[in-house]
Amino acid sequence: MIIGCCFICVFAVLINKVFLDITVVGFTGGSVVLPCSSAEHDLKPHDINVLWRDKDSGNVYDLINGKAFVEQQIPRYKNRAQTFPDEYGKGNFSVRLINLTHTDAGEFNCFITHSADSKLQTVWLVVNEATVETTFLSFSCR
Ligand SMILES: *[C@@H]1O[C@H](CO)[C@@H](O)[C@H](O)[C@H]1NC(C)=O
Ligand SMILES: *[C@@H]1O[C@H](CO)[C@@H](O)[C@H](O)[C@H]1NC(C)=O
Fold first, then answer.
1. 3-state helix/strand/coil string of the chain
2. Which of 2, 35, 120, 123 has a C-alpha 20 to 30 A away from that of 21?
3. pTM value?
């Protein structure tokens, strides 16, 4: 068990190094927070413009002028992508994706376009099969 755990932890570190991006690991049926944050910490609503896109450039979530805008959201993310409105002003535009499936795995891009700061943050989502064993291993890694 301990060897298996270390292998998974080391593997996660290696994935991070290879892509030089953030890697998040979740389990089928579970949820993950896909992180995205700005260096600006005192943002006014009109200056909060963030686009979240998936590996097929599908619309996961938009924040336009500080408001959630889901009209263009593709159906598979409906009610599965949650943002944290209390955190926007602090520059935290992370998205929680719930009820994960294997189809969700892959690249997510967060495009931030403020007047003072524009950047692209890429997050890689790995979705593992939820089994008793993997749940145990992921807990014992912490
Ligand atoms: C997520 O999964 C739960 C439990 O299976 C279910 O009750 C809920 O409707 C699902 N929500 C969405 C948005 O798929
Ligand atoms: C952003 O907010 C989420 C939800 O509250 C939290 O889990 C995450 O740690 C926050 N990230 C930063 C960089 O503060």
1. CHHHHHHHHHHHHHHHHHHCCEEEEEECCCCEEECCECCCCCCCHHHCCEEEECCCCCEEEEEECCEEECCCCCHHHCCCEEECHHHHHHCECCEEECCCCHHHCEEEEEEEECCCCEEEEEEEEEEECCCHHHHHHHHHHC
2. 2
3. 0.80
The minimum-distance atom of ligand 1 relative to the CA of 99 is: 1
User: In a mutational test of the pocket of ligand 2, which residue from 84, 88, 95, 97 has the highest number of ligand atoms less than 8 Å from its CB?
Assistant: 84
Domain of residue 105, CATH code = 2.60.40.10
Answer whether residue 75 is part of any domain.
Answer: yes
Give the pLDDT confidence of 111-133 residue by residue, as tens digits.
999 877 789 999 999 999 987 65
CA–centroid distance, 81 to ligand 2, in Å, is 15
Protein residue with its CA nearest to atom 3 in ligand 2: 94
